[in-house]
Amino acid sequence: MTSVTDPTRPSAEERRREQRAWYFYDWANSAFATTVAGVLFGPYLIAVAEEAATGTPARVDVLGLAVAPGSLPAFTITVSTLLSAVLLPLLGAVADRTERKKDLLAGFAWAGALASLGLFFTTGDDWQLGAVSFIVANLCFGAAAVFNDALLCLIADEDERDRVSSRGWAFGYAGGGLLLALNFVVVSFHDAFGLDQALAVRLSMLSATLWWAGFTLIPFLRLRHHPVVDLEPVEGGVVRRSFGQLAGTLKDIRHYPVTLTFLAAYLFFNDGIQTVIGQAAVYGEEELGFETGTVLATYLLVQVVAVGGALAFGRAAERYGAKPVVLAGLVVWSGIVTAALFLPAGALVPFLLLGAAIGVVLGGTQALARSWFSLLVPRGKEAEYFSFYHAMERGTSWLGTLVFGIVYQLTDSYRPAVFALIVFFVVGGLLLTRVDTARGIADAQRGHPAAARG
User: What parts of the sequence cross the membrane (predicted)?
Assistant: First the structure.
């Protein structure tokens, strides 16, 4: 595919320069996604909540509801995502009416890092501080991702996006894996550093916060402002104008049936992916009985394999197209959650093999979904459409975590909770088979396909 000539588009050299800077936000935010959200937050919040739990079976009081400590991380992510579903579309509308997308990206990233500092101060039985800190940090994480992914449409032409998106994910897994390796040493050998395990975990989460905030400086300083294009005229101040644009999009989105179908598919399969990622550490420690250090090492393996997986999926998409490659990835994801149902407790080699399989498909499916969706977005509404996309995205998924938490609440076992996620991959895959990419691209380029077809 080739891009339509547009004098407002940056040159190839300008795009490459911005793409290199853009990769660094994936490098920055992956520290929070891996060290905090992926590995340490869930088990640590459970441990803190268990100190506060009472009764038989042990439960903590959450707004009058008796909740098992083991379900608390999943429900915490669910709350964060419900808030995202309300706030992110509005933020996307605001972003599309300003050229300062990189400023909003950095602002939300730094706000999220500031909120995540509360995790360092979560000690004793104060699980409420940890839950609230994570909810706010995760909400800001999703908001920053809206602006980051909207920038992909501005710094890469259509035929570059699979490659650029895949490299961004690979860069992210490399950065997140590097910090995770350092934190693996700190947590696994905490005695040698004169630390107890709880303090080692808190310091590791603090390091991810500082990493996220620090490396965000690179895209903030090196990306440029891009002029606003192709917006519908609406009246009033920025908030009123943004609500007006959002209302217009909700009205007109029915004219983009391919985009809607893709979003519905993404809602399902990405919720499944994010729930597996978010609950893998809890499953490894609580169900299989592995130590925190072992789970960290396995997650590090996932990160290393995911770098190659993201790049390999990008190359495969260039040859076969994104659709068949993503569908193949979903078949592998279905096999992963099925294997997790039968994985023996304490069996390290099968656990490592399962982690390697996750690494192969993790970065690839997410990277190609991002670049694929970017082709279905009408120009001038990149941030607004990506706000809908990110309301369903990693770390802000809610259907998967809700199902996971409810199944555990009913069974007191993480095995059926993990296996229940196969529904998300099957339904998402079936919906993806109905996505006509060529038609979706044509509709997005015309802007008003229903009117164009008469």
Answer: 21-46, 66-92, 104-123, 129-156, 168-187, 199-221, 260-282, 294-313, 325-345, 351-373, 394-411, 417-435
Domain membership flag for residue 7: no
d(CA 145, CA 280): 22
Least confident of 45-49, 70-74, 358-362: 70-74
Domain that holds residue 440: 12-229+255-449
Kindly state the DSSP code that residue 65 receives in the 8-state scheme. Answer: E
Q: Is residue 86 part of a domain?
A: yes
- Total domains, the chain: 1
Backbone angles phi, psi at 73, to 5 degrees: -60, -40
Tell me how many helices (H) and strands (E) the chain has. Answer: 19, 2
H or E element that contains 62: strand 60-62
Cα–Cα distance for residue pair 82/441, rounded to 1 Å = 30
Q: 237 lies in a domain?
A: no
Nearest-10 crossing angle of helices 127-155, 72-96: 40
Domain-embedded: residue 441? yes
Q: What is the pLDDT of residues 409-432, one digit of tens each?
A: 888 889 999 999 999 999 999 999
Segment among 321-325, 353-357, 381-385 with least mean pLDDT: 381-385
In angstroms, rounded to a whole number, what is the distance separating the alpha carbons of residues 200 and 192?
11
Of the candidates 264, 303, 289, 261, which has an alpha carbon nearest to the alpha carbon of residue 34? 303
What region does 120 belong to: left with phi over 0, alpha with psi -120 to 50, or beta?
alpha
Model confidence band, residue 451 (pLDDT cutoffs 50, 70, 90) = very low
Task: Spell out the residues 6+ positions from residue 20 whose beta carbon is closer than 8 angstroms to its own.
Answer: 222
Do residues 414 and 290 lie in contact, with contact meaning Cβ atoms separated by under 8 Å? no
If phi > 0 it is left, if psi is from -120 to 50 it is alpha, else beta; for residue 122 that is beta
pLDDT, one tens digit per residue, over 223-273 is: 988 877 655 555 555 555 555 555 666 676 778 889 889 988 988 998 898
